[in-house]
Every structure is written in structure tokens, then in C-alpha cells.
Amino acid sequence: xxxxxxxxxxxxxxxxxxxxxxxxxxxxxxxxxxxxxxxxxxxxxxxxxxxxxxxxxxxxxxxxxxxxxxxxxxxxxxxxxxxxxxxxxxxxxxxxxxxxxxxxxxxxxxxxxxxxxxxxxxxxxxxxxxxxxxxxxxxxxxxxxxxxxxxxxxxxxxxxxxxxxxxxxxxxxxxxxxxxxxxxxxxxxxxxxxxxxxxxxxxxxxxxxxxxxxxxxxxxxxxxxxxxxxxxxxxxxxxxxx
Length: 242
Hints:
The protein is built from five helices and ten strands; from the N terminus they run βαββββαββαααβββ. With 242 residues, it is of the alpha+beta class.
């Protein structure tokens, strides 16, 4: 696949720094992580899948009004793209504090893992009631981690195996949050990837579209298919703020 855009310029250095932080967290869970990039409407949406959580993580950043294009004087605002690249190579390309702060380059496309072909739908999202506030979500996570550690420590020596720990984890992280269908593992993923942060009037929302659920915060979003739903393809529209 040939992608004409060779360089990226973000709205400001902070946007590049936020993207770098997100990519670094993804790479913590998978050093060979790939990300799918969708650019359009002055924004870049970055999709990743941390394997420990079985969810899609979405971070959107604002692009500047222009970007260099190979072999032309065109502006990036007229050139949307959709490509899968190495998360590590994209991170290495970002200039966060140097003379070109707020810039980066688009790595060569890679053959993406299967999840890159199955994204949430573009529209049709409806807000779901019953999601607890950020403080309650944080308390639920703290209690879940404490329960996991307690049950792990209580295992007899002959049952201390990865399989037993996985069973405990599946029991705890598959529990739903509040009066919603959202599993606790999605909230855990949001915290681990930096999407749940202390902030004034911190808004969080749960949205649903067809077979998909989406936990939205000001710093990114977590999307996953509802339990028992089948496969399917879709695309999520690019929008800043997850």
C-alpha cells in the first residue's frame, strides 16, 4: 500500500507529547504493537489493542492545518489516510521537545494483525445510563486489584499456576460496572493507558452502537464488542477527545 504523506505536523507540541505517552503505554504491553491510523477532518485517530485487556484503545490528536507531502506542495487537510504502522516506529518519529516539536513522520505501512480490520462503527452511538462517576470507577478498580491479590495469595502451593491466576482474573475483570454491560476490564484498560486521570469536572460516558460499547473520557476511549456478539467490520470516525 502506498501512502503519500511522509510527515506529520500536530496542532502543537502537547498533542505530539500526548500521542507519545499513549504509544509508550501500548508498547509496555506489546513491544511489537501495531496501530491503525485514520486521518481526516484535521484530526488523527490512533487505534491500538493492548493484549492483556482484549479491548481497542483509541486516542485522537489534532493535526495542524498543513503537512509536507512527498513530491507535491499539497496540504494534508486535503489528504485523509487510513494505514496500519508500527507503534514503535511512530513513537521514534515524534519530536516532543526538540527544534521540530510537534512534528513526526509516518512510518511505512505494515501488515496489521486481524483486529485492525474490525473497528467500531462510524455513527449510531447512543449514551447508556448507569455508569458510575470517575471516583466510583477508581474505587471499584482498587477493590478488584486487592481481591485479585488476596485470592492469588490464598491459592495452595500446588495450584499456583498461570492457568489458575487467569481464572481468577477472568472472574474479576468480567464483572460489569454499575448498571451497565461494561466489563471492569475496560475500566482497568482505561486507567492503565492513561485515560482515567484526576481532573476537574472529569466527564466519562458509556456509549453503545449495535454490538459495540465505548467508554469515552477526555483523554481517549476504550471500545469492545458486547459479550456474545459476532464478528463484523466497521470504521470509527475521527474525532478529537476519544
